[in-house]
Amino acid sequence: NTCKYLNDTVTRIGGFKKIDDANRWARYIRDSAGLSAIITTRPTGTPTPTQARASTVSYKPRRLGTGFAVLVDYYNRPQLVSDVRKAVKGDVGFVAYGRRPYLLANYTSNQKEAYETLQELSKRGFFAIIVDSQKVMLLRSVVNLPN
Prior knowledge:
6-stranded antiparallel beta sheet; alpha+beta; 4 helices
C-alpha cells in the first residue's frame, strides 16, 4: 500500500507477529536497500492519521511494466545477493510480490530469456519463480550491500 506523505511516496509494511521480526526487516531494508525504516507498534484504540503515518517506510516504489519477472526467495539472507548477482551476471533488484520480499534477478518481455534465467538459478540451487511483472512492486532497482 503506497500513499503520498509530505511530498514523498511512502508505504506501510505490517503483519509482523513479533517486534524482533519487524526490527530484522527494518535493518535489512536499511542495510541492503539503503532505505529509511521506522518501526512502531500498533496504537491502542483507533489510529489517528498522524499515528498511521508513523508506521511507514520511505522510498519511491513503482510497479514493473508488462513482461516477466524472475524472482529469487533469499530466505532473509542478504548475503545471497552476491551469489545471485554472479549467477545472472548483472545487478539484482529488491521487490515485493504477494506481500513478500524477493530479489529481482531478471525483468524482461522475452519469455524464453526469463525461462533461461530461471533454469540457471535453479541449477545453482536458488528457489526462483517466474511471475507476471505487472504484479511486482520494485522497491530498489539495484541492491547495494555494505562492505
